[in-house]
Write a structure and sequence with these properties.
Strand content: 35-45%
Number of helices: 2
Shape: globular
Structural class: alpha+beta
Strand order of the largest sheet: 1-2-5-4-3
Radius of gyration: 13 Å
CATH superfamily: predicted glycosyltransferase like domains
Distance between the termini: 24 Å
């Protein structure tokens, strides 16, 4: 969610230690910086959400669903406490394969 506007930017599709991939109904401008707020599951932390800034690195039509778009983001600014919480989220829900294994790199493109 855009922390400034409250608008849903997309659904979290995958995360890596330094970034993430979103899927959404609209294309994302490349190299745009977004203030994000992400709700934190209660089993991860007592914090309700984390807030950070991320820059879009790539954006393209979804590879399986032509009605959707996907975009990769690199985190550019995050509070150290939120960074620890993000790491916990990654370890719980993040991709266990490397970009080389999957043929994807959420930070730098496909």
């Amino acid at each position: 969610m855009n922390d400034r506007t409250g608008e849903l930017v997309g659904d979290l599709a995958d995360i890596s230690p330094g970034g993430f991939r979103l899927e959404g109904s609209r294309p994302i401008p490349v190299n745009a910086e977004f203030p994000f707020r992400v709700d934190v599951p209660p089993e991860i932390s007592q914090k309700l959400c984390i807030v950070f800034t991320a820059r879009s690195r790539w954006s393209q039509p979804h590879r399986f669903d032509g009605r959707l778009y996907e975009a990769g983001f690199r985190i550019t600014n995050m509070d150290p406490t939120d960074s620890r919480t993000f790491a916990l989220i990654f370890h719980r829900y993040g991709s266990t394969s490397t970009p080389k294994e999957t043929g994807t790199d959420y930070l730098w493109g496909r």
